[in-house]
């Protein structure tokens, strides 16, 4: 028995002829309805107005391709005996993948860190790649920050970009009105964002699920619209420009005497500042990761995860769920505040346009794609999403389409994200990974 | 016919709970002894879980007073406290009819969450813990020791690093009790701990509950349908029907109480007269 089961290379074909014909007729009708109208007719500018170009032949080819494709699917994929999955990966590939991912998993973090540290000095690294990696690292940091709220505490936050905006505007405004330096503003921006995180936290304490998501979404929009309309204070749609650049502990990055290059006896190069920004965001991101990992092993972090698993059980054990939720919002927001003030100092110019809902969606997509709660997953997802955006910059019109498709395919393949296992925060004898099926997703999923 | 309790850890007095037009609990008064196992029984819909929810703060009672007493003489009025403060300050812990574990967290992690408040103080509300101060490390070690102790008692030591959601049903019940015990309660309220357990598992549960009473000086209040558990281990039984107390006494008294037999087990048609007669006799 075992032999026949292990060689399923030639399963018996089950083809119900009438069913296939019916399906193909329906396919033809749907394809005709869709492509008949969209491809067969095309408006062209002709002399004296618009003209209509008729392209029945192209429409016919497209419809034929759809029907033939469906027929091939029937013959080769859907004809397997019932019980076997339609798109099953061969066993050898599956186990191979598992082996590779287990091996990669162990050394992945340190390898990535080492690579990130030497990256700016590699021979092929140019200004463009450095800028791109600064962008990626910003999203890694934002992803890690949001991971606290969504991945650990299980509170779906669709307005995370608001805290990013608060961080950026805090720095810009404090620098403009009081002349504070970047290093003074960085903690202040974090504290202000955390404060606003608590402000958002209070009204949503009692909300769950969809309602929580909608209120956080509204909060994100409120912040953006206030920034847009408070013209006297924030500059409104004109934004704020002339935001001071960061200095290397008081040494500015310029050609002047006493600048960074002069002090260290180097030839002045504009890449120094970019490299500094790169290491700055790397340090900030690593701080986020370090603090998050540390918090996970403290009672507060376990309380976040317990909140995600079961809020009522938390209360029955004497956990004050109000403060557990508020700390999650506040600490998540604080890291967004840090990232925001970094963004402001890097750009030198900010406007409400940089903080639209699409940014929130992008950060959330990174967290979900990476696997909620997984720190490594966020890194992989950020590289894939932001790096992928850059690769497809040429195909600008289709960029979103390609991305949508890629996301759909990945989420079918791995519904709980790229890295879906949970690593326990404490163990007695052996650190066993917890499979995603056990882990609850929290509110709003 | 109220059962006299010398040193009550919990007193419920004139408890009323109204949901709209329905009076779920009606003028209920009873005491729970400090080192007793007290069972709250009654037919389905008698209001047992409602009483539990009032005691543990998940419902605010319409009327009545619920007092918890510690050995030190401190008293806590539970009906005025926030639900999370009842286990934290008044030290009354509970479990749930449908098990509520943190399924994606390991057995050990579940037990650590149970000690949240102690650890929170030890970590200086996170500020000390994040810088790795030694005070927190020591407290964490002690917390792991307490968790190990309860894993041992519940027979879960081998599964310490497995996800709680992976455990078999009986072990999940025991883990929920162990997790509540990690809050170091003075009174443990168990909502149908033996539901869905096989005879061997319910025997293990009995042992665990007797151990808790004997070694830990913790009172136990439990709702249960399994008469083996109720009659086997309780010191004191309270019977509810339609929100009213119909009997209160030792297992022996309850076993022979005709009104309990009538209400709880139901009465066969041919026996109705006989039972009514007995009740009348008992009343007079």
Automatic annotation (TrEMBL), chain A:
Its main location: membrane. CDD domains: TM_PBP1_LivM_like. The chain crosses the membrane at residues 20-38, 58-79, 100-122, 180-204, 211-231, 274-292, 326-349, 361-386, 398-415. GO terms for molecular function: branched-chain amino acid transmembrane transporter activity. This is High-affinity branched-chain amino acid ABC transporter permease LivM. It is found in: Cell membrane. It is a multi-pass membrane protein. Keywords: Cell membrane, Membrane, Transmembrane, Transmembrane helix. NCBIfam families: PRK11301.1 (NF008450). One of its GO terms (cellular component) is plasma membrane. InterPro entries: ABC_transp_permease, LivM-like.
Automatic annotation (TrEMBL), chain B:
SUPFAM superfamilies: P-loop containing nucleoside triphosphate hydrolases. PROSITE patterns: ABC_TRANSPORTER_2. The keyword ATP-binding applies. Residues 10-267 form the ABC transporter domain. One of its GO terms (cellular component) is plasma membrane. The keyword ATP-binding applies. It comes from the Bacteria. InterPro entries: AAA+_ATPase, ABC_AA/LPS_Transport, ABC_transporter-like_ATP-bd, BCA_ABC_TP_C, P-loop_NTPase. One of its GO terms (molecular function) is L-valine transmembrane transporter activity. GO terms for biological process: D-alanine transmembrane transport; L-alanine transport; L-isoleucine import across plasma membrane; L-valine import across plasma membrane. Keywords: Amino-acid transport, ATP-binding, Nucleotide-binding, Transport. PANTHER family: CONSERVED COMPONENT OF ABC TRANSPORTER FOR NATURAL AMINO ACIDS-RELATED, HIGH-AFFINITY BRANCHED-CHAIN AMINO ACID TRANSPORT ATP-BINDING PROTEIN LIVG. Belongs to the ABC transporter superfamily. This is ATP-binding cassette domain-containing protein. The lineage of its organism: Bacteria, Pseudomonadati, Pseudomonadota, Alphaproteobacteria, Sneathiellales.
């Amino acid at each position: 028995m075992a032999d026949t089961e292990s060689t399923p290379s030639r399963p018996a074909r089950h083809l119900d002829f009438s069913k296939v014909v019916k399906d193909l007729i329906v396919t033809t009708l749907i394809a005709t309805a869709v492509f008949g109208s969209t491809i067969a007719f095309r408006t062209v500018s002709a002399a004296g107005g618009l003209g209509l170009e008729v392209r029945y032949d192209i429409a016919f080819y497209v419809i034929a391709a759809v029907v033939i494709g469906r027929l091939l699917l029937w013959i080769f994929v859907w004809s397997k005996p019932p019980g076997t999955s339609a798109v099953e990966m061969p066993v050898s590939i599956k186990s191979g993948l598992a082996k590779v991912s287990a091996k990669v998993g162990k050394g992945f973090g340190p390898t990535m860190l080492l690579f990130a540290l030497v990256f700016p000095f590699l021979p092929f690294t140019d200004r463009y790649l450095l800028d791109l990696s600064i962008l990626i690292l910003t999203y890694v940091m934002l992803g890690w920050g949001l991971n606290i709220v969504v991945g650990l505490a299980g509170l779906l936050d669709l307005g995370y970009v608001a805290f990013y905006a608060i961080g950026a505007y805090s720095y810009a405004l404090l620098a403009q009105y009081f002349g504070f330096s970047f290093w003074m503003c960085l903690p202040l921006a974090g504290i202000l964002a955390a404060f606003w995180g608590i402000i958002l936290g209070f009204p949503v304490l009692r909300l769950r699920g969809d309602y929580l998501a909608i209120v956080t979404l509204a909060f994100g929009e409120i912040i953006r619209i206030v920034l847009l309309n408070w013209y006297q204070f924030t500059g409104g749609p004109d934004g704020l420009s002339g935001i001071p650049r960061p200095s290397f502990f008081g040494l500015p990055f310029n050609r002047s005497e006493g600048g960074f290059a002069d002090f260290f006896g180097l030839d002045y190069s504009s890449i120094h500042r970019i490299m500094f920004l790169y290491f700055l965001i790397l340090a900030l991101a690593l701080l986020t990761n370090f603090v998050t990992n540390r918090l996970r092993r403290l009672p507060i972090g376990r309380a976040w995860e317990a909140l995600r698993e079961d809020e009522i059980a938390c209360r029955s054990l004497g956990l004050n769920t109000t403060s557990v939720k508020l700390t999650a919002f506040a600490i998540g927001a604080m890291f967004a505040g840090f990232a925001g003030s970094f963004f402001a100092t890097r750009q030198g110019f900010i406007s409400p346009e940089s903080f639209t809902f699409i940014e929130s969606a992008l950060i959330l997509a990174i967290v979900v794609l990476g696997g909620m709660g997984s720190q490594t997953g966020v890194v992989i997802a950020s590289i894939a999403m932001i790096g992928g955006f850059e690769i497809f910059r040429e195909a600008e019109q289709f960029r979103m389409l390609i991305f949508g498709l890629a996301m759909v395919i990945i989420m079918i393949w791995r519904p709980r994200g790229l890295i879906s296992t949970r690593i326990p925060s404490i163990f007695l004898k052996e650190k066993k990974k917890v499979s995603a099926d056990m882990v609850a997703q929290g509110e709003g999923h | 016919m109220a059962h006299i309790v010398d040193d009550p850890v919990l007193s419920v007095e004139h408890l009323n709970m109204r949901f709209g037009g329905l009076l779920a609990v009606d003028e209920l008064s009873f005491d729970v002894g400090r080192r007793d196992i007290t069972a709250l029984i009654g037919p389905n819909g008698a209001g047992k879980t409602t009483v539990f929810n009032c005691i543990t703060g998940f419902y605010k009672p319409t009327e009545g007073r619920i007092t918890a007493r510690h050995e030190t003489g401190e008293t806590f009025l539970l009906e005025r406290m926030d639900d999370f403060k009842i286990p934290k300050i008044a030290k009354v812990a509970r479990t749930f009819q449908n098990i509520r574990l943190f399924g994606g967290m390991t057995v050990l992690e579940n037990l650590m969450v149970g000690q949240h408040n102690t650890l929170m103080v030890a970590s200086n509300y996170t500020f000390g813990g994040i810088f790795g101060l030694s005070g927190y490390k020591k407290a964490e070690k002690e917390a792991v020791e307490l968790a190990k102790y309860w894993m041992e008692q519940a027979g879960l030591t081998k599964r310490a690093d497995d996800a709680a959601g992976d455990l078999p049903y009986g072990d999940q019940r025991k883990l929920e009790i162990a997790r509540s015990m990690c809050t170091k309660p003075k009174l443990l309220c168990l909502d149908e701990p033996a539901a869905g357990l096989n005879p061997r598992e319910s025997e293990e549960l009995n042992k665990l509950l007797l151990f808790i009473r004997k070694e830990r000086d913790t009172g136990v209040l439990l709702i249960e349908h399994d008469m083996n558990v109720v009659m086997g281990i309780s010191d004191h039984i309270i019977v509810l029907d339609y929100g009213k107390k119909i009997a209160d006494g030792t297992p022996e008294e309850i076993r022979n109480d005709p009104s309990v037999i009538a209400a709880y087990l139901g009465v066969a048609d041919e026996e109705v007269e006989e039972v009514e007669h007995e009740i009348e006799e008992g009343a007079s």
